[in-house]
Write a structure and sequence with these properties.
There is one protein chain. By secondary structure, this protein is an alpha/beta fold. The protein has one domain: TIM Barrel, CATH 3.20.20. The protein is 37% helix and 18% strand. The chain has a ten-stranded mixed β-sheet with strand order 6-5-4-3-2-1-7-8-9-10. The structure holds iron/sulfur cluster. The site of iron/sulfur cluster has 13 residues, from helix 12. This is Radical SAM core domain-containing protein. Its cofactor is [4Fe-4S] cluster.
Length: 342
């Protein structure tokens, strides 16, 4: 296992996740990001933007990294679009100076991803998108409503359809979270999606079972029995393939050339991977980003970072364990692991 980590380190990819807004315009029933933490950090202040830029510059300047992969995450990252563009512009220019590739990725609920924003993001080097649709509107709108309870399916799907007319290359991962009650609705959604996205090498469909991931609503969540999960997920992949929809394979991941995705390694264990929340707190695992006590350090005024060794070791201890290829966090929460949970 340590050999594998060494091999991954040799790729010299810096994987940085930034949370520009902890706030979210959705209230998904299975969300693990509790409101109490969200509300504190709605957008990124100019002081914190400055610190993040310095952090990026300090690291790119070392010349050690071949590539910097910036992943925008939330909350809903598009609620602070201005910060995304500002930091992408800055990083692209520093990357040019120090001959370091910069690639952007965004994980968004898709509601605010209109065609104007989509094109701007592409222009700024954000080439990888992940949008979640949990079935046709009957199921999706119940599972992923707006904060005020209103439906979201139609707008997200329309946003996705608009992206087809763009000639640039990009990767659009359309993810469905699978629960006992939305399986048929996901198939209905795939039937619809196949009319628009079949055989288009820019769109990929993925499926993940919903797990109890530490959210307030965990005790009320209906999840698929652990021993049935693999079979149901495979059934959906087969269904999508039969409709001519793409599912991600090794080639796709190779094209993206990211870590840890292509190496199937937990992001928290990859040494050159850090999550920056917009109050300057640092984390290793996306499932813990709204829990202050899980912070592994913070970012200083000059862009340097201060790490708490014991908090880092909390993740490092899993490196030699079989859990490194599953999900240590879900294991800690008493969930069955083996299927990536982000
Ligand atoms: S695999 Fe699990 S523990 Fe690792 S980063 Fe993802 S959610 Fe966190």
């Amino acid at each position: 296992m340590s050999g594998m980590i060494g091999k991954i380190q040799d790729k010299k990819i810096f994987s940085i996740t930034i949370i520009p807004s902890s706030w979210c315009n959705f209230r998904c029933v299975y969300c693990y990001e509790n409101d109490h933490y969200k509300i504190k950090n709605m957008i990124t202040t100019s002081e914190m933007t400055k610190r993040i830029k310095l952090f990026l510059e300090n690291n790119i300047k070392t010349g050690f990294f071949r590539k910097v992969h910036i992943r925008w995450y939330g909350g809903e990252p598009l609620l602070d679009f201005k910060t995304i563009i500002d930091i992408m512009d800055f990083t692209n220019s520093i990357g040019k100076t120090y001959k370091t590739d910069i690639i952007g990725e965004i994980i968004t609920n898709g509601y605010l991803l209109d065609i104007v924003k989509f094109k701007i993001l592409l222009e700024k080097g954000v080439k990888i998108f992940q949008v979640t649709i949990d079935g046709y509107k009957d199921a999706h709108d119940k599972l992923r409503p707006l904060l005020n309870g209103k439906p979201t399916f139609d707008k997200i799907f329309e946003n996705l359809i608009q992206t087809r007319n763009v000639t640039d290359n990009f990767f659009m991962f359309i993810r469905s979270n699978v629960m006992p009650d939305n399986l048929d609705s996901i198939k209905k959604f795939l039937d619809l999606a196949s009319n628009y996205f079949s055989r288009d090498r820019r769109y990929y469909f993925t499926f993940f079972p919903v797990t109890r991931s530490g959210g307030d609503n965990d005790k009320n969540l209906k999840v698929i029995e652990p021993k049935k999960r693999m079979e149901i997920i495979q059934e959906l992949y087969m269904y999508a393939t039969q409709l001519g929809l793409n599912i991600p394979d090794k080639d796709t991941l190779l094209q993206i050339d990211g870590v840890p995705a292509m190496d199937d390694l937990c992001q928290a264990l990859y040494p050159f991977s850090i999550i920056i929340r917009n109050d300057g707190k640092l984390f290793k695992c996306p499932l813990t980003v709204m829990i202050d006590d899980e912070s592994v350090g913070h970012i200083e005024e000059d862009g340097s970072i201060v790490l708490d060794e014991s908090k880092i070791n909390r993740w490092a201890k899993y490196i030699l364990s079989p859990l490194s290829r599953g999900c240590p966090r879900l294991h800690e929460l008493g969930e069955v692991v083996g299927v990536e949970a982000e």
